[in-house]
Please model this.
Amino acid sequence: MGDDALTVRRLFVEANGEHPMTEADDAYVRAHFEPATAEQLELIAAGRLPLPGYYLSDETPMVADISACLAAAGGVEALHDWFLAFWPGHEETAVDEWATFLAGRYVCLRDLDPLSIRRRTRMLEQARAAVRALRTDPRDEVAQGALAEAVDGGLGVPGLDQLLLPMTAHDRLRFGGPTVRDLWVDAVRAEFHNPQPPALPIRTKRLTLRRARPDDSAATAAAFGDPDFVRHLLVGPQNPAEVAFTAHQRSQPEPPGEHRVLPLLMDLDGTVVGSVVLFFSGAGRTSAEIGWTVYPGWAGRGLAAEAARTLLDVAFEHYGVRRVVANLDAENARSAALAERLGMRRESARVADYWSKGRWTDSYDYAILRAEWEARRHTAP
Model:
């Protein structure tokens, strides 16, 4: 090992300590970093390039690819001044960030550059403020949106999930605890973006809203085999075997942490007469989409309205979403009328926007906000 390599190794240990690397750690590092060259080690030893992010178990120094930074800066000689320019008017912060950059401490970033460093800082600050607000008021819609953007990003805005690498057990040792991603992506999602189902079944005036059972296939086969019934649905006609398999799948318990949809059957005195469903979507799963079907022979009795009103209550009160939408085939006049009776507003009429059953189909988007639903409930007779 040459003098530069020895110097770099010593500096790395001073900054990070000595911690073991497992085979899994090695594999991860090889996937995200590259071996340092002799030229890079010379520049690192001179304090002009960042320290290696890792040393493999075979002592290979592994560095982040900063070629884009060097190209934009105009070379190693200009890298320092180019880097500091990202913090105009904040010289002390810029100097601190340069020191952290050189120490190889930003191994959490997918792209090691000052723009990603600034974005990480901004999103962490935004996430911390949002978490404080939501622990005081879980229905704070501004905090919900801010946290969702900080974690998952938005239009043209990368969130922490996009900015941060998974990292390793080795990182938890050298940083003395959970990684940034552990704390501000995984833990935040578990606490705030992990909806839990309500107690089931749900009783309405006439209906029992419940999960599917394998023996429901007989009741649903006739409906889903009817071309007229499925005409406005995304699925086509299904044979009894397909219906039975779908019923079996929907009757299975959800894996922990994977509650993304609430599909319920409408049970009227032991007879399955339709279904209603919530899909969670949007930033931080603060929105949901609602859908409903009423089986042939049961339309016109207000059953879909009864079930949908109850599920809107569940969406806003149990899950705490801020907005519920319904997307309808524009030819489905019954569903459009029901959406309007529920107080949902038509927000768009899309022309030939999706392909279904051999043709381009028009659609309507309806929506209602939590505040609108609450106001409607308070003024309802």
